[in-house]
Amino acid sequence: MAWREVGKKSICANLTKALASTKSRDVLDPLSTPILEDALKSISSSIKHVPVFSVSQSSLGADNYQILPNRPLTRRFHASPGLLARRRSDEPFGLKTPKKEKYVKRESKMQPPVEAPYVPPKPKRTTKSLPDRTIDIFEGMTIGELAKHANESISTLQEILVNVGEKFDSEFDTLSIDIAELVAMETGVNVRRLHSNEGAEILRRPAVVTVMGHVDHGKTSLLDALRQTSVAAREAGGITQHLGAFVVSMPSGASITFLDTPGHAAFSAMRARGAAVTDVVVLVVAADDGVMPQTLEAMSHAKAANVPIVVAINKCDKPAADPERVKVQLASEGLLLEEMGGDVQVVEVSAVNKTGLDNLEEALLLQADLMDLKARIDGPAQAYVVEARLDRGRGPLATAIVKAGTLVCGQHVVVGAEWGRIRAIRDMVGNLTDQAKPAMPVEIEGLRGLPMAGDDIIVVESEERARMLSAGRKKKYEKDRLRRIDEGRTEAPEPSEDVPERVEMPIIVKADVQGTVQAVTDALKSLNSPQVFVNVVHVGVGPISQSDFDLAQACGACIVGFNVKNLPTSLSLAASRASIKVKIHRVIYHLLEDIGNLIVDKAPGTFETQVAGEAQVLNIFELKGRSKSKGDDVKIAGCRVMDGRVTKSSTMRLLRSGEVMFEGSCVSLKREKQDVDTVGKGNECGLVIGDWDDFQIGDVIQCLEQVNRKPKFISSESGAVRIEC
């Protein structure tokens, strides 16, 4: 090492000076030797790892001096625990010198980036770990309470509040119910608003009664008898296909809000919405027809909504009416009637003769008194959309029933994912009104978009708050829609080779109101089969437009219109030129039947092998001595066709004592020495089967054909439809 060489040079220089001073003397002073040794020891001790030098006295002379280095002392010992502990204790106290780490050269910015595969970041939560949870929110909720309900950290909610633009000081700050909903939706949970009635004026309100039952059991006729109108006569096909709401003033002076629901199987969602907003369900059952599928469905809707039921047995004036049989059927389905010790009232009525209506009114008012129906009158309103439609002159219209509070014209509202400022409020007769009280059905206009039937109406403070809440709900709905699509893709089974590929049938649905759009869409989706997939690519409210034709031409879709205006001449010509199928109907029966037949025609079908005819071998003929050009000897089976027909182009199956002996193609088929293609029942023929000549009298030859079997469109008495493959 360099430092060791430097140390040696300095030592040699000092020794040279010392020896020079001693050479000048004739006799060596005896005292100089210890001095010289001390000097050498001090010099050697100042430099580490340099061996100690000593001067041998025996070699000292006047002119000769030898400097001998001492060999370093080598110690050999066994490492005992005590010795190791003593050696560790000899280490100095204090901070230890940090070890030198390996030097890593920093990469310069001018070097090209290293090509590495992209590793996506791990998601915080998978889609399956996000169930559809619903939390309760209320006015004055603190940030800490919201974090506890949403199962999120306070810091996460504070970040969302900063993005929303809300100021906060601590986790104990209160939030408005609109901001709480916005923050909760950002975390991916659904919300349910809770409103407090503290300090509010609570008064009695009219009862909301929903009339439900099977199709053609007289629901609308019964309501016509109550309000002295003729709505049923104006319905297309004589059946109700919309959800109607109106107020009926009873002879006693009381008023009741009625909801008329359709009875067809396709309108199940409408009946569910009616049961969700009602106080009492009137279950109408025809005395001559009894309990039917939609009757049972109405009972299940009422039980799911925890709503009391009043049974009205209609058509008691008919000769075939049997009310007692209806009561027994209802009791067997779990409905506890008053006559049998239960609490469900039963009234026998006739809508045609207008008998029993007073008893029905009395039963409804008694049920309302038992429930003690009250609602908050002042404060912001809460309403429920039962139907929505698009008017050409007035824009989006929503039919709603106020549940609490007072809905005032000019307020900013949020309806589902849409918002707007109420421009006008009309009652169900069409008269303008300034406000709507609880249990009052009204039609509001002024919305920016068409809401969905079943959405809640909430009143907000300002337009800015309405815009913000509407945008947040749209974002949440879109996330949920994409998540459902993703889950459907992951859960879809892999197509197997045995299952034939499904044919897609795209459909565009246009209807007059939002409720019928949903009903028609659900009914069309129920026509899905293993062979045809009904894909509803677009739905809308209003007449069929040019944009619908453009979309249909782009994706090859069929346009279905329900209760919409007929096409103008220009669009009809454009549809015929572009070969676009347009189906417009006003009755749900005819619509589903027409689309069902269209699906059956589009289905590829399944090929099956069936026996087209049978022939019995009566005799065997053998042709011998044929030339080489005509081939070997041939055996001909003389047969008689016993059933069906025998075709030359079909496959032949030979049966002997019920056992299949051979299957092959027919080489030759003759009747009366003439080649023919088909031989009918009762005729005799001769046939030759390729690669088979072991015929025996009594054998049965079957003629097999491949038949393409199409699916069937089946419609039940209740109106339910399906495609059976």
UniProtKB/TrEMBL annotation:
One of its GO terms (cellular component) is mitochondrion. Residues 102-129 are annotated as: Disordered. The keyword Nucleotide-binding applies. One of its GO terms (molecular function) is GTPase activity. Keywords: GTP-binding, Initiation factor, Mitochondrion, Nucleotide-binding, Protein biosynthesis, Transit peptide. Its main location: mitochondrion. Belongs to the TRAFAC class translation factor GTPase superfamily. Classic translation factor GTPase family. IF-2 subfamily. One of the essential components for the initiation of protein synthesis. Protects formylmethionyl-tRNA from spontaneous hydrolysis and promotes its binding to the 30S ribosomal subunits. Also involved in the hydrolysis of GTP during the formation of the 70S ribosomal complex. This is Translation initiation factor IF-2, mitochondrial. The lineage of its organism: Eukaryota, Viridiplantae, Streptophyta, Embryophyta, Tracheophyta.
